[in-house]
Amino acid sequence: MTTMSAERTALHCLSAVDGARQATRAFLEALGRPAICRAQADTVVPVVSEVVTNALRHGGGAYTLRLTAHPSCIEVAVEEPSLRMPRMRTPDLVDGTGGFGWHMINDLALTTVVTPGSNGGKRRTALSSPR
Asked: Whose CA, among 4, 18, 110, 126, lies 20 to 30 Å from 101?
């Protein structure tokens, strides 16, 4: 399989997360068969949803999503302008203030990495295996 990549940039709006999910599904479908199995798609889409939601909620409302298919994994990368690094926190079961997303991302992905951006902000990267 050759490497394939797609990029989407968005500003905060009600449909930004849904748009990221749709773009991810379209990207995965464009890979063709048997590049990715259904179970893999079922993990990549929620990872994208949670990383984009976190970027919108904690990163100032703008993000760039980059999806790359490598022979051994799907790479999900989101760049955002915030310098604040994500942290694990106890999920809030009472007031609904969150705390679930970063746990979910780390549970679904093979690995996650957060790196400071060269011009400020940060990049969150999650890798998941296509099989």
From this structure: 4
Q: Which of 45, 51, 14 is nearest to 27 (CA)?
A: 45
In whole angstroms, give the CA distance from residue 9 to residue 66: 9
In DSSP notation, 61-79 reads SEEEEEEEE-SS-EEEEEE
Count CB-CB contacts under 10 A for residue 50.
Answer: 24
Report residue 118 CA to chain centroid gap: 20
Report the length, in residues, of the chain. 131
Beta strand segments in the chain, E: 4-11, 62-69, 74-80, 111-116, 122-128
What is the per-residue pLDDT across 49-87, written as a single tens digit (0 to 9) for each?
Answer: 989 988 888 777 788 899 998 877 889 999 998 888 877
What count of Cα atoms within 13 Å lies in the side-chain half-sphere of residue 118?
Answer: 0
Q: What is the Cα gyration radius of the chain?
A: 14
